[in-house]
Amino acid sequence: MNPAGSLLTATGLHKAYGATRALDGAEFSIHPGEVVAVMGPSGSGKSTLLHCLAGIVTPDSGSIGYAGRELTAMSDAERSALRRTDFGFVFQFGQLVPELTCVENVALPLRLNGVKRRPAEAAAREWMDRLQVAELGGKRPGEVSGGQGQRVAVARALVTGPRVLFADEPTGALDSLNGELVMQLLTEAARSANAAVVLVTHETRVAAYSDREIVVRDGRSRDMERVV
Ligand code: ADP
User: Which atom of ligand 1 sits closest to the CA of residue 57?
Assistant: First the structure.
């Protein structure tokens, strides 16, 4: 793996939970604007790798470089600040706040960063438009479909202009048609914003939207020729 020009790089990551070696020498790198799929069977260490890269889990050993800074050397407060400003997240289930409307959900990260309601909601509507869910602004998450909710979640993840979007099985709860639409719009939106995407998936069809695939097995990762 060549880390030259990389935005986010990990080398020699180890993480154990008791006797389980979740990561056992994993490597990773991603360039600005690149979409990398992290593939592998269930339990192979994909989510642990994503959580380490995002500064949510601290590895037992190894190094994680982000934009010239060593993530493992940062304080918890520095890492959470970085997550708020530079990283966006999409999970399998959108995890939208049920009491808020969709536009309020998308605007929420900006509001938490101190942006006033009007400009925050204006930016939210712009991102919802790109994700083709503009018409859902006034609805609550319980009133929209799973696929629509995921597109709202993608808009929320991108509204702060993150440099890295972490997506953990973003289509895992969707049927194939909705999954394809989410992936198409997610990758288009991320590319237009020059955000790198770390995409964890076990589906080849979803990974096909990436520029490059990394396979994790038994906590170790390697680059892979795309299987057609
Ligand atoms: P994947 O995302 O590929 O399914 P994970 O990274 O979730 O794999 O898990 C890798 C291994 O580490 C599994 O054996 C899992 O049970 C274990 N593991 C992950 N997180 C924890 C945790 N918080 N506590 C204990 N074991 C964990």
Answer: 23
